[in-house]
Amino acid sequence: MHRARVKAVRGNRVLADGTWLTCIGNRTVREGEWIWTDGRCVYGHESEGGSSYVPTNVLSGIPLLQIKWKDQKNQMLHSYYAKGKIHPLGFSKEDIWMVNSSSRFAYVSGYGMLDAEIDERGNLYTLEAVNALVFPLIGADQRDSILSVKRNGEIIASYDLVPMFGAPVVSGPTDLYSCQTEGGRVDKAGNFKVMIWHATSEHGGDGSHVSTDRYVFFDGQNMEPWMEKTKTTSRDSVTGESHTSESRWSAPDYSVRYPLHDGMYMRFPANLDYLISGKRYISKIYSAKDELLMELETNPTARTSLCPLGQGKYLVSTGSPLYLWKDGQFTELMRGCYNYRLRRMSNLNKWKKAGGL
Questions:
Q1: 144: helix, coil or strand?
Q2: Where is this region: Disordered (predicted)?
Q3: Segments forming the whole domain that contains residue 20
Q4: Does residue 17 lie in a domain region?
Q5: 41 in any annotated domain
Q6: Backbone angles phi, psi at 164, to 5 degrees
Q7: Based on the structure, what is the number of domains in the chain?
Q8: Which of 256, 287, 347, 356 is 20 to 30 A from 167 in CA distance terms?
Q9: What's the half-sphere exposure (Cβ side, CA atoms, 13 Å) at 175?
C-alpha cells in the first residue's frame, strides 16, 4: 500500500502513478488529491494535509501512558485518544515514560532524564539531567556536573556546567553550592536547550552571609542569563546589628524563546519567584510559523506538549495533566500523563503489542 496523487478521474477510474486504478467504495476522489493504492485499486483518499486512510483492523490515534495505582503499586495504563475521547487498552507493569513520532515509538526511563525525542528512523535522543550539590551540613558532596546528549544510548555531546560559573567554594558546614538543570528540550537532530539553576551560599566568621540564585538558559553554544537574585547580610562590629540588602535582575518578560517540539516554542515572564510563589504562571505558546496558539499555565520546568486535532483544537499536556483545548477553553481529561510528546500515530498495533497488551 502506498500514497499517490490523482492526475485524472473518469467515473470510478482514477489515474495515478501513470496507471488507471479502480476506485472502491463510495468515496469521492478528485484530481489533485492523495489516495492510497496497492497498484490496482483505490482504497481511500485524503485531501492535502488531511488524515491518512487506515484499514479498519488497525488502531490509530494519539498513544497515551498514564500512571495509576493498581494492586498496591504504580502501573501504566495504555490508552489512545481518537474521535474525541480516550480509549483505555489495559495495564503494563513497568513504570516507564514514552516518546513517539508519527510511526516510531520508544519506552524510556524517566529517571535522571530531562527530555527524550525520536526521529522517523527510530533514533532515540535523550537529554540527561545535572544535579551537582555540595552541602556539608547534610553530607552532600555530589560534583558530577556533565550535561550529556545521547543518541541510542551513545553520548554525542557533553558539557561540564560548573566551569561556566566557577568551581564550588565551600569553606564551612553551612555553605552551599548547587548547579542543577531544572528543565530541558532536545530535538530530532540532538539540538537542545536547558534551564540551569545555579546557587551559592557563603557564611563569614563575622556573621556575614551572601547567597546568590541565578537562572540561565544554555544551548551548547550560548548562555542566556534570565534572572538573578543576591541577598547580603552583614553585621555591625560595634552595635552587633545585622543589615540585609537584596538585589534583583531579570531579562525582559517573554524575551527567552524556549523550544517545545515540531517547531513550536514558548515564551514566558521573568518572574523570579515563579517556582515558589504558588501563583498562576502564564506562558505563551507559538507555532513553527510564529503564530500565537494559546496562553497556557505552564513554565520551562514542565514537560509541555501539544498535538493539533484540527479545527483549532489541541490535546495539551503540561507534565501530568492532559487537557483538551477547544474554543479557548481547557477541559481536563486525565492526570498522570507519562508522554514526552503528544503525537498522532497511524498504526498503534506495534505500540500496543510492545506494552504487552
A1: coil
A2: 228-247
A3: 2-46
A4: yes
A5: yes
A6: -65, -25
A7: 1
A8: 256
A9: 13
Measured CA to CA, the distance from residue 77 to residue 65 in angstroms comes to: 6
Q: How far is CA 47 from CA 18, 28, 59, in A?
A: 20, 11, 21
Give me the pLDDT at residue 343, please.
97
What confidence score (pLDDT) does residue 48 get? 40
* Nearest residue to 336 (alpha-carbon basis) of 110, 130, 118, 29: 110
Q: What are the φ/ψ torsions at residue 202 (nearest 5 degrees)?
A: -125, 135
In a domain, 73, yes or no: no
Q: How far is CA 21 from CA 41, 52, 256, in A?
A: 5, 19, 53
Look at the chain and count its residues: 357
Q: Which residues of the chain have pLDDT under 50?
A: 26, 45-56
pLDDT one-digit tens code per residue, 91-144: 986 778 999 999 999 998 878 899 999 999 999 999 999 999 998 888 888 888
Question: Sheet of 329-334: strands edge to edge?
Answer: 304-310, 313-318, 322-326, 329-334
Alpha-carbon gap, residue 174 to 351, rounded angstroms: 50
pTM given for the model: 0.80
CA atoms within 13 A on the CB side of 47: 2
Buried b (16+ CB within 10 A) or exposed e, 106-139: bbbeeeebbbbbbeeeebbbbbbbbebbbbeeee
